[in-house]
Amino acid sequence: MARGSRLARLAALGLLGVLTLTGCEMPNNEFWRFGWPEGITEEATEMRELWTGSVIAALIVGFIVWGLIGYAVLRYRKRGDELPRQTAYNLPLEIVLTVIPFIIIAGLFFFTVVTQNRVMERSENPDETIAVNAFKWNWEFVYPDTQGEDGNPVSTVGTSTQIPILVLPTDRTIRFELASADVIHSFWVPEFLFKLDVIPGNENGRDNVFEVTVREEGAYVGRCAELCGTYHAYMNFEVRSVSPEDYDAYLEARESGLDTYEALESIGQPGDAGTTTPLDLAQTKTVDQQQSAGD
């Protein structure tokens, strides 16, 4: 019984460490990220902290298990030909080995749900709203709160020869409302550490909406992460995050009649995408023809 009590106390101490470290704010450096990318949004920070806490919890459990295995190997190693005392069961130990894993799983589940709810949380009045329209095989980004010279909202549409650039402000809450014109696509920006399927026919947009707050300026590649057809692999776009002042100036330039390239140049940004390149349709068609001829 004393031995079972010691094991119970050891397991309880490990569990306390698991729950404590999982719930704490984790340091943000390369070592403590355990391979998790840093990300550029507030939501990415939430997911990184969950990942760090989960890895630390797993390591604590692992060290306890490895320690118990090592103890059993040394303590109960064979010392002779005499058959050791046979134990049918150890009720305290069995209770510990049943309850403790359940509590660990429940704790990790709790923190996962909290983080998921935080990442998918929607504010009452986001600072910016952007409509993302996916189609085979490109993207359209619409700024519904603007009005161009033609009376329609400002938008950027990708073509087979031009990568669409999605301009975003930093330090503002941005709501994305996703829609698909044909099949299921997936809006993915790796630096957001987040992607969301764009499901066609979802008229109320309930499941096609998410929000982020970008914290770093820069240019980042975006992709479709759902196999959607022949040219899925080339369905790329670029996110250009700029200061709030440059973002406002960009929209003003677009409303005055400038296109995406000219408006970006007017705020000191490169007009063309630099993180990805358009699909070379002529080369792809030639390769397809050659393959067909070979068949």
UniProtKB/TrEMBL annotation:
The Cytochrome oxidase subunit II copper A binding domain covers 125-253
Q: Name one GO molecular function term.
A: oxidoreductase activity
**Which EC class does it fall in?**
translocase
* Localization of this protein: Cell membrane; Membrane
The record gives the membrane topology as:
Multi-pass membrane protein
Q: Where is this region: Disordered?
A: 266-295
- Give EC number(s), comma-separated: 7.1.1.9
Please name the taxonomic classification of the source. Answer: Bacteria, Bacillati, Actinomycetota, Actinomycetes, Geodermatophilales
InterPro entries with a match to the protein in the record: CcO_II, CcO_II-like_C, Copper_CuA, Cupredoxin, Cyt_c_oxidase_su2, Cyt_c_oxidase_su2_TM_dom, Cyt_c_oxidase_su2_TM_sf
| Name listed for the protein in its UniProt record | Cytochrome c oxidase subunit 2
Return the Pfam families for the record: COX2, COX2_TM
User: Which biological process terms from the Gene Ontology are attached to this UniProt entry?
Assistant: ATP synthesis coupled electron transport
GO cellular-component terms in the record? Answer: plasma membrane
Q: Which PROSITE patterns match?
A: COX2, COX2_CUA, PROKAR_LIPOPROTEIN
Q: Which portions of the chain have biased composition (kind: Polar residues)? A: 274-295
UniProt function note:
Subunits I and II form the functional core of the enzyme complex. Electrons originating in cytochrome c are transferred via heme a and Cu(A) to the binuclear center formed by heme a3 and Cu(B).
